[in-house]
Amino acid sequence: MTDRAAEVRFKPQDLLLALGGALILDTYEDPLPTRVFLDVLGSLGVSGDATRSVLTRLTERGLLTRHQDGRVASYGLTDTSRRLLRDGRERVRAAEPFHQVSSDWTLLSFSLPETRRDVRNRLRSRLTWAGFGCLRDGLWVAPGRVDLDRVVAVGAEVDELQVDGFLASPAPGTDVARYVRRAWDVDALRWEHEEFLRRWERPVPRESDPLAMFVLLGAHWIRLLRVDPVLPERYLGEDWPGRRSAAVYRSASEALEARAGTAFAALVEDARARR
């Protein structure tokens, strides 16, 4: 079953990483034939060329290993990708991923030469995943206490990277809500939750492809976790949909996971038998 939402909303890399974290990590230690990835992403409307391209890119970035056995290429997770996927899985499986328990805020400033845009882009991506919003160029803020060592490790090899971090509490009279809306587009965050709910709150049809749907669900959930910084609810207005989103994800995941795992195991067995 092809779901057109996968083509519109999610890059092949998003789908591949969702697959890796949900069904490959800690289950398949040996590399998997290319055919496995072509079949899974193909069921979501991704072309074979696009799948091969993202496999090559992730290999070049050190997130996959490539092995050749005759005419059959296989890909496996690296230590780096396993670490990243395990870190991500903590948030994916969190009971209350959108509930902020801390009253503190983390401030971070960094500077990099313009020539290191590659590191800048990776660092910005990690900051966003960790819940940071940008107040102005080089100054970021996140709700709660953030482990900065894990965030900035992406640029640790760059001598020119300068990072300063602080824990802070708002001074009396500070309009925190104004700063929240300055650093984050709260209306866009609400829309992301509502879009997730529109897509997954209704029961998953029994006749649908459980593997394709499970990977798509995972990619959509990771997207939501990435864009939502887990802000204190008192700054978000009434009826914030975070708790509903978490409940809907758990329900949809429970409905699909076992069937998806069985389908994926059969796909792997078939691809290995063809070698």
Automatic annotation (TrEMBL):
<dbReference type="InterPro" id="IPR036388">
    <property type="entry name" value="WH-like_DNA-bd_sf"/>
</dbReference>
<dbReference type="Pfam" id="PF07848">
    <property type="entry name" value="PaaX"/>
</dbReference>
<protein>
    <recommendedName>
        <fullName>PaaX family transcriptional regulator</fullName>
    </recommendedName>
</protein>
<feature type="domain" description="Transcriptional repressor PaaX-like C-terminal">
    <location>
        <begin position="184"/>
        <end position="262"/>
    </location>
</feature>
<dbReference type="Pfam" id="PF08223">
    <property type="entry name" value="PaaX_C"/>
</dbReference>
<dbReference type="InterPro" id="IPR012906">
    <property type="entry name" value="PaaX-like_N"/>
</dbReference>
<dbReference type="Pfam" id="PF20803">
    <property type="entry name" value="PaaX_M"/>
</dbReference>
<dbReference type="InterPro" id="IPR048846">
    <property type="entry name" value="PaaX-like_central"/>
</dbReference>
<dbReference type="GO" id="GO:0006351">
    <property type="term" value="P:DNA-templated transcription"/>
</dbReference>
<dbReference type="InterPro" id="IPR036390">
    <property type="entry name" value="WH_DNA-bd_sf"/>
</dbReference>
<feature type="domain" description="Transcriptional repressor PaaX-like central Cas2-like">
    <location>
        <begin position="102"/>
        <end position="147"/>
    </location>
</feature>
<feature type="domain" description="Transcriptional repressor PaaX-like N-terminal">
    <location>
        <begin position="35"/>
        <end position="80"/>
    </location>
</feature>
<dbReference type="InterPro" id="IPR011965">
    <property type="entry name" value="PaaX_trns_reg"/>
</dbReference>
<dbReference type="InterPro" id="IPR013225">
    <property type="entry name" value="PaaX_C"/>
</dbReference>
